Amino acid sequence: MRARLFKNLGLKILAIVFAVILWLIVMNISDDQITKEINNIPVEQVNGDVLEEKDQVYEVAKGDTVDIVVKGRRSIVSQLSASDFSAKADLSQMSITNSVQIDVQASRLGIRDEIAITVLDNMMTLNLEDKVSSQFSVKVKTEGETRNGYAVGSAIANPNIITVTGPQSSVDKITDVIATVSVSGANKDISTQAVVRLYDAYGEEIVNDKLEYSTDMVDVSVTVFPTKEVDVNVEIQGEPAEGYAIENTLFQPTSVMIAGPTEDIAEISEIKIDDISVAGLESNLQKTVNLSNYLPDTVVAVGDTAEIEITVNITQTSERKLTITKKDLKLRGKQADYNYTVTVSDLYVKLSGFEDMIGEVTVEDLWPVIDVSGLYLGNNMGVPVTIKEIEGVKTEISGTVNVEVSSTDTEEE
After folding, report:
1. Which residues are CB-neighbours of 13 under 8 A, at least 6 positions away?
2. Architecture of domain 130-225 in CATH?
3. What is the rounded distance in angstroms from the CA atom of residue 367 to the CA atom of residue 95?
4. How far is Cα 32 from Cα 298, in angstroms, rounded to an integer?
5. Angle at CA 34, nearest 5°, toward 33 and 38?
6. Buried b / exposed e across 142-154, counting CB within 10 Å, b at 16+?
7. In CA terms, which of 127, 237, 263, 400 is 20 to 30 Å from 39?
8. Fold of 227-316
9. Residue 91 phi/psi, 5° resolution?
10. One fold for both 33-121 and 319-412?
11. At residue 250, what are phi and psi to the nearest 5 degrees?
12. Contacts from 373-382 at CB under 8 Å and sequence distance 24+?
């Protein structure tokens, strides 16, 4: 048996060696060298505090991810993905062109010596800006509808001013800092907390993780009052320039809803606006009035009615003369035992107003009257004439009226 085992030993050893060589050849053929491109490996920025110490902030303009080509044995490389690599950019090594080299390594030590890594674009580019701080008032915005018969009186944030720190370009865009609170169905005061949000001039929210807030939450107090509808009354002061008059006064709305403590709104029956002057004007007046200026501090105008638009239309006037004869004059206060003889000289009325109005006025409409009850016997010179007022028409009487008073007894003799 032993003899048979060692028979042709050299051939057997040669066969084994050949088999091993053949196995190695097969393995090398099936596990040959390959290359693989791996994309979108996140790049970690380290030592960013170096820039912050210089009061600068940065944004990555290019290179927040990196692509690589890996070369190695098929059995290793074919299994690799982006999660098997780490990429870092050391910001403390930034060049004068604001570029930082990206270093990529395999995350597992066991494969680092088995592969070769080529970074396709190994530079990260940064945008640097000065770091600034600004203070902004916090506005409270309410959303939703209160219970019917109630309205929001005031909404106050605490703190009402916050500081925002970050890139100057982002801070400069901030126009409003708003905390939003729901008042849906409310019929009493609300105390809550609200998130602070930033908005630009177009009403778009500004979201930037480089911006820091002194606080991102504020306490909000909302007062909710009962409401009441009242009329608006506008009284215009002054007179337009000579030769001009007020044609009409228009304003909207003519009634508004107010809100406030019950005892305060109970005392208000109307909102009277009496400080609009047209003195000396020759053209129309348009003015926007804030109703809060005409209300107690504890009462507010609700919603869109907080302001009203007032238009005073001013039009050039015309003049017209009407002659008054003695037949047109009515005598008031005559005594039965007196006779009255009336003489007039250049007696007329000058009418001033809008042409369509003064054009329709007659002497009969003016009802000219002289009062003779207090006249003495004889010739009374310059007896005054009174006329009826006509709305929208100014009148001015010129000329003289004389009345001769005599006794009826004297005439009979």
Report:
1. none
2. Beta Complex (2.170)
3. 100
4. 86
5. 140
6. beeebeeebbbbe
7. 127
8. RNA Polymerase Alpha Subunit; Chain A, domain 2 (2.170.120)
9. -70, -20
10. yes
11. -120, 140
12. 373/332, 373/333, 373/334, 373/335, 374/333, 375/340, 375/403, 375/405, 376/405, 377/338, 377/405, 377/406, 377/407, 378/404, 378/405, 379/403, 379/404, 379/405, 380/404, 380/405
Domain ranges of the chain: 33-121, 130-225, 227-316, 319-412
Length of the chain: 413
Q: What kind and span of H or E run contains 15?
A: helix 9-30
- Strand bridging mode 190-199 / 378-380: unpaired
| Residue 228 to residue 84: CA distance in whole angstroms | 70
Q: How far is CA 336 from the centre of its chain?
A: 78
We find that the CATH architecture of domain 33-121 is Beta Complex (2.170)
- Quickly list DSSP for 382-402: S--EE----TTEEEEEEEEEE
Burial (CB count <10 Å: 0-12, 13-18, 19+), residue 68 = buried
Task: Confirm if 348 and 390 have CB atoms less than 8 A apart.
Answer: no
**pLDDT tens string 398-412:** 999 999 999 987 554
d(CA 94, CA 157): 43
For residue 410, the surrounding DSSP H or E stretch is helix 408-412
Percent of the chain with pLDDT over 70: 92
Pairing label, strands 369-371, 330-332: parallel
What is the value of pTM for the model shown? 0.55
As a whole number, mean pLDDT of residues 292-315 equals: 88
Look at phi and psi of residue 173 and say left if phi exceeds 0, alpha if psi is from -120 to 50, else beta. Answer: alpha
Output DSSP code: residue 80: -
Q: What is the pLDDT of residues 239-260, one digit of tens each?
A: 999 888 888 999 988 999 999 9
Closest CA to 173 of 130, 213, 208: 208
Which DSSP category does 311 fall into? E
Compute φ and ψ for 207, nearest 5 degrees: -120, 115
The CATH label, of 2.170.120.30, 3.40.605.10, 3.30.1330.20, 3.30.9.10, for the domain at 319-412 is: 2.170.120.30
